[in-house]
Amino acid sequence: MAAIQTRMQFGMGANEPLCIYELCNKLGIKVRFVDINIEGMYRRGADPRIMVAAKRPVARRAFTCAHELGHHVFGHGSTVDELEDDRSKDDSERPEEILANSFAAFTLMPTVGVRHAFASRHLAANTATPVQIFGVACNFGVGYSTLVNHLAYGMNDLLPVRATELLKSSPKTIRAQLLGKPSDAPLVVADGQWSAKTLDIEVGSHLLLPKTVAVAEGVMEPIAENGSQVLYCAVATGIRRAHGPNGWATFIRVCRERYVGMAAYRHLEDNDDEDDE
After folding, report:
1. Cα–Cα distance between 27 and 50 in angstroms, integer?
2. pTM greater than the 0.90 cutoff
């Protein structure tokens, strides 16, 4: 309920994908990407701040930011969240951590929105393939395993035994299946049912788009055709509009790889934001 109320309070709707950094901005919380070996930090006070590790994948950063926002919404004190692999079981199972994780999940993946995403693709969570679930995860800007776990344990739309089977696949194996060969570059898939207004990606990452979608020049470069799709590589920072038939449109926003600085400036070529410390 807190996730839905926070979204709707700032006109972001109860079901569509959103940009967590824009939501934080509407709440008056500055977000900075920092070069530190943690997941994220929340600093409570008259001028609240969230700091997110720049080295983490784009989707992981978004979830971490939503998690730290959960600490703010529920009135928790300042927090430092260690890397997931470094956390003790006791730390991960503290009530405030479980609450912040749940808030993050339902803020980024609202139940109605996720169910609509599957329905619009004529899919059911329990029978969808890893590739199909990966596409829905991309639409909401979250990781593959994040969506699988949310479907199983947050929404109860996926049987736990099926979740265990799906988690045997990884983004690396899914990329190989989609591209027909191994690839180390992060990949985003935007299909014909893409519903997010924006698409965030880093320089050096790849993007699969339908052939029917046109992308304004400047930040994305086509590098291969893949059946009915075109594979692009993000080559420069900036924002460009992509559009296709039947009103399909989104803004592709490219930031530097492992960008350090204020989240609001991440798509600019030059970032002089030290005054915002």
Report:
1. 12
2. yes
d(CA 155, CA 149): 9
User: Which tokens hold the place of 204?
Assistant: 């050096």
Whether CATH 1.25.40.80 fits 174-255: no
Flag whether pLDDT at 11 surpasses 90. no
| Residues 260 and 54: beta-carbon distance below 8 Å | yes
Q: What is the pLDDT of residue 145?
A: 97
Residues whose CB is less than 8 angstroms from the CB of residue 275 and which lie 6 or more positions away in sequence, other chains included:
none
Pick the CATH number of 2-108 from 1.20.1740.10, 3.90.226.10, 1.10.10.2910, 3.40.47.10: 1.10.10.2910
Which tokens sit at 37? 């070996």
Cβ-count burial 152-162 (b if 16+ within 10 Å, e if not):
bebbeebeeeb
Average pLDDT rounded to a whole number, residues 209-229: 94
Could you give the CA distance from residue 176 to residue 195 in angstroms, rounded to a whole number?
25
> Quick one: tokens of 256?
């530097």
pLDDT at 59: 96
238: left (phi over 0), alpha (psi -120 to 50) or beta: left
Token pair 């919380």: residue: 29
**Cα distance between residue 30 and residue 27, in whole Å:** 9
Distance in angstroms (rounded) separating the CA atoms of residues 273 and 277: 8
Residue 17 has phi, psi (to 5 degrees) of: -60, 150
| Helix (H) / strand (E) containing 71 | helix 58-73
Rounded percentage of the chain residues whose pLDDT exceeds 70: 93
Angle CA 237–239–240, to nearest 5? 120
Confidence band (pLDDT; 50, 70, 90) for 159?
Answer: very high
